[in-house]
């Protein structure tokens, strides 16, 4: 059996009964005494992979909407004593919310009778989101597997049980339970022990650390607000954290007020952006990664020698835009068709450069195609793909064979994060990108006993920790580091903030 599911009443059990053959529903009856007996009997007769308690409940928070699902992260008794902490709440709630259900994470308090009026207020004062009569009794049993609690709000402090509105509230609560049932089954199917292989290196690179520190120091030195042109690095969490400190992210310089301080992102800018900023008298702090700046220098070196230049990269990426703006007439090459269509004035004077965050295999493929058409083509002295990109891809490749699934932490607009997903996939392993632990779909984890985890160069390390903590809600997790290299690269901060 995969899931042992407790529900107090027949109509709740009926709402929760899916078509999953490995779910067994136990109807406890109402109240803690009956719930205790049912839990003790079930513990003797069943060996489930996961246990859940579900049903309707009374909402305690003012303004609650009937039909809201409360996923418990804690269960307390009526004295406020903690009966159980439930680490699976975050993942379960995120998966319920992703189905369009209204979900809140909160504390469930269990009482031995129906409560009204002031008594409800007293329970709310304990920090509880909803009240029931059975959960604490069921969780008093020491279950040796992951446990989850979902309660659907049927009535609220404003419209209590037995009022006319409660009938409608009850229907909404049962509908919410019906929608939650398949997710509970997925959660149970994903439960079990697993191993997490941690790719090393992963997460922040030297260029990203420098860029983030540059914004923080700019805020300290020049005061908020400090404007940042484009995302300082391509990660939603980094941007949100800096916004709380006073950074204002803009798309273009015309959104920056006269006299303000503006930081250029790690991806670099074209000379026209620099001259616009200078002409407007803006205080500029340049957080361009030195490895991107190196590519810009190569452009100018080749252009100074009269070469026609092609840039291997992705259209629309901030770094590509900045590099293309360094000189007129640079042609962007994204695939073999672009190589075929390339018009060259003098095949003896052709040079290529690349975006820093591509996959080396993709670059060699396109450089090969260019060299076959234009044998005299020249490239940079040292490869443009940066050390951090190469190391993270190498680390993923090294562990992909041993994984059932690889989860890459990072935001969708991060180029190097997207490449990590591609590298794992090309190595024959299922791979997914998650912005944080809330993006982990329970369906992915069914049968995933070994999960590889890495993070793009712009993703904060704490997100990897959070992902592993969320996985612990599904069962014991053994973590193994799989480091292929140790990085100790540092870039000095821009002069303005040193
Ligand atoms: Fe610099 Fe590479 Fe990091 Fe981009 S990924 S910021 S190029 S070190």
Description:
The strands form four sheets. The protein has a five-stranded mixed barrel with strand order 3-7-6-4-8, surrounded by four helices. Strands 18-17-19-9-20 form a five-stranded parallel beta sheet, sandwiched between helices. Helix content is 38%, strand content 23%. A hairpin with a 4-residue loop joins strand 4 (69-77) and strand 5. By secondary structure, the chain is of the alpha/beta class. The protein folds into three domains: 3-190, 3-Layer(aba) Sandwich (Rossmann fold); 206-289 and 492-497, Rossmann fold (3-Layer(aba) Sandwich); 291-373, Cobalt-precorrin-4 Transmethylase, domain 1 (3-Layer(aba) Sandwich). It is built from 17 helices and 20 strands. The structure holds iron/sulfur cluster (SF4). Iron/sulfur cluster (SF4) is lined by residues 205-208, 266, 289, 291-292, 356-357, 386, 388-389, 416, 457.
């Amino acid at each position: 059996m995969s899931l042992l599911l407790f529900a107090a009443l027949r109509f709740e059990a009926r709402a929760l009964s899916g078509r999953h053959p490995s779910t067994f529903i136990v109807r406890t009856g109402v109240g803690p005494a009956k719930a205790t007996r049912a839990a003790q009997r079930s513990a003797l007769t069943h060996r489930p992979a996961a246990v859940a308690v579900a049903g309707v409940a009374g909402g305690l928070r003012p303004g609650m909407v009937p039909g809201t699902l409360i996923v418990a992260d804690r269960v307390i008794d009526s004295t406020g004593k903690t009966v159980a902490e439930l680490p699976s709440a975050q993942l379960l709630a995120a998966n319920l919310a992703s189905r369009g259900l209204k979900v809140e994470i909160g504390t469930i308090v269990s009482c031995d009778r129906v409560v009204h009026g002031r008594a409800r207020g007293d329970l709310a004062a304990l920090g509880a989101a909803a009240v029931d009569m059975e959960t604490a009794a069921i969780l008093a049993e020491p279950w040796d597997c992951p446990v989850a609690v979902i309660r659907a709000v049927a009535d609220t402090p404003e419209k209590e049980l037995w009022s006319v509105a409660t009938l409608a509230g009850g229907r909404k609560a049962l509908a919410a339970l019906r929608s939650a049932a398949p997710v509970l089954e997925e959660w149970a199917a994903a439960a079990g022990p697993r191993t997490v292989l941690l790719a090393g290196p992963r997460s922040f690179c030297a260029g990203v650390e420098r860029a983030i520190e540059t914004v923080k120091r700019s805020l300290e030195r020049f005061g908020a607000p400090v404007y940042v042109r484009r995302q300082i690095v391509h990660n939603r969490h980094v941007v949100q954290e800096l916004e709380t400190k006073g950074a204002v992210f803009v798309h273009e310089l015309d959104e920056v007020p006269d006299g303000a301080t503006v930081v250029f992102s790690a991806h670099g800018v074209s000379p026209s952006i620099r001259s616009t900023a200078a002409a407007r008298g803006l205080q500029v702090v340049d957080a361009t990664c030195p490895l991107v700046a190196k590519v810009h220098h190569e452009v100018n070196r080749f252009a100074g020698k009269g070469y026609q230049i092609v840039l291997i990269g992705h259209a629309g990426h901030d770094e590509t835009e900045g590099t293309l703006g360094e000189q007129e007439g640079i042609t962007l090459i994204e695939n073999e068709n672009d190589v075929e269509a390339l018009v060259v004035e003098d095949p003896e004077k052709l040079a290529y450069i690349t975006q820093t965050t591509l996959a080396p295999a993709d670059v060699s493929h396109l450089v090969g195609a260019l060299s076959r058409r234009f044998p005299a083509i020249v490239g940079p002295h040292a490869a443009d793909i940066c050390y951090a990109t190469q190391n993270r891809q190498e680390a993923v490749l090294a562990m992909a064979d041993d994984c059932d699934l690889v989860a890459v932490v990072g935001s969708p607009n991060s180029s190097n994060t997207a490449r990590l997903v591609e590298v794992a996939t090309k190595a024959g392993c299922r791979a997914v990108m998650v912005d944080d632990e809330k993006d982990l779909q329970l369906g992915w984890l069914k049968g995933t006993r070994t999960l590889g985890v890495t993070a793009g160069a712009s993703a904060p390390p704490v997100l990897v920790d959070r992902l592993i903590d969320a996985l612990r809600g599904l069962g014991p997790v053994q973590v193994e580091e799989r480091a292929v290299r140790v990085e100790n690269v540092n870039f000095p901060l821009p002069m303005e903030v040193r």
